[in-house]
Write a structure and sequence with these properties.
With 368 residues, the protein is mainly alpha-helical. The chain is 69% helix and 2% strand.
Length: 368
């Protein structure tokens, strides 16, 4: 029996879907019934608009830029730590001298601020010298009351029981000379500060030239240590322990990135959601930070505190970097293990606290 397009349409309208044999017949017929079949193949689908494509491109670019920044931070941090380990003493001395140079040239708290304060005090001393012209010279002696001037009473006067004693007054010339001497001292301080500020850059240039000849490996690190961007300089001049922590966290975030983008090359892995591209690197960094804390705690327990620059227990920086990478890549498994361990711990505590010993039933002894 031949199937007509009108019958196919009625079946579609009544039953919602075609029977299998009717579909095959409709597919073979060159009628309008094939249009109904094509519409059923893509239910609920719509064509992406320009706005949708723009949103996709924006999020993709944001994720790529974020991943590139994390990779750059991890790579540069590893390079700085590796250069620092070549000669730790020279590297630390360079950081200390660069910090001193920056503090001396700081407009807010450095030598320019000191010069401004000295100039202000010198102006006040000039006003004091003008007021010193109104000084009045006194003749004879001055009587001081012991209650108001206990520090001026000599031991001999106290032993003699004198409640009052005499003293010669300061002359106006002495007062003016003291003010002039202090003002000249400020001139010497200002001269020293200006001399140091003038030759500051020259001295540090010679110092850096000597450091680079002694340790040529430090030349690439100078671009970060002597950067004009304060946040870059602060990051590059951080202590060795902080650099280790930054390296471990950034490597953990890299492990999270590898886990989030593994579906691009491994078809057995399902494609994650959009938020997973941000969540997995953050989770990897957090897990790596926890691993760093555990590692440092173990290092302190085994080797003790670091004193006088002597490190009793040392670990390879590559071991820490690999630990951070594995922690980020296996962050999901680590969280599952933590949840299982915590669940078992709390479950055992709850069961032990809930379990109460049964009372011992003693047989009743009849009383005669």
């Amino acid at each position: 029996m031949a199937t007509t397009p009108g019958l196919i349409g009625k079946l579609a309208g009544v039953n919602g879907t075609f029977p299998l044999g009717v579909r095959i017949g409709a597919r073979q017929m060159n009628t309008t019934g094939t249009t109904i079949y094509d519409q059923e193949q893509t239910p609920g689908q719509r064509k992406l608009s320009v706005l949708d494509w723009g949103s996709v491109v924006f999020w993709a670019a944001l994720i790529v830029v974020m991943y590139a920044m994390i990779f750059a931070v991890a790579l540069i941090t590893l390079s700085l730590v590796e250069i620092r380990q070549v000669n730790m003493v020279v590297y630390n001395d360079l950081i200390a001298n660069l910090e001193q140079r920056d503090r001396d040239g700081d407009e807010k708290w450095g030598l320019p601020y000191v010069l401004a304060q000295v100039s202000e005090q010198r102006a006040k001393y000039s006003k004091m010298m003008a007021r010193a012209d109104r000084c009045i010279d006194l003749d004879g002696t001055i009587l001081y009351n012991e209650h108001n001037n206990q520090d001026r009473v000599s031991v001999t006067d106290k032993q003699n029981g004198d409640s009052e004693h005499t003293n010669k007054p300061f002359s106006c010339n002495n007062i003016r000379n003291i003010i002039k001497n202090n003002k000249n001292g400020l001139l010497i301080t200002e001269d020293n500060a200006r001399f140091k500020l003038t030759h500051n850059d020259e001295w540090y240039s010679q110092y850096i030239a000597g450091i680079t000849q002694k340790m040529p490996q430090i030349i690439p690190a100078l671009r970060f240590l002597d950067s004009r961007q304060s946040w870059i300089a602060s990051w590059a001049r951080s202590s060795f322990e902080l650099m280790e922590m930054v390296l471990l966290v950034s490597m953990g975030m890299l492990g999270g990135i590898i886990d989030a983008t593994r579906w691009l090359v491994d078809r057995s892995v399902s494609r994650p959601s959009l938020l997973a591209y941000f969540y997995k690197p953050a989770m990897g960094g957090a897990i790596a930070l926890g691993a760093f804390v555990v590692f440092r705690a173990t290092q302190v327990i085994i080797g003790g505190q670091v004193q006088d620059g002597v490190v009793t227990v040392t670990a390879s920086i590559y071991l820490l970097a690999g630990l951070g990478l594995v922690s980020g890549f296996c962050a999901n498994k680590v969280l599952q293990q933590i949840e299982q361990a915590a669940g078992g711990l709390f479950h055992s505590e709850t069961s032990s606290s809930a379990k109460m010993p049964d009372p011992i039933d003693h047989p009743t002894v009849p009383v005669h």
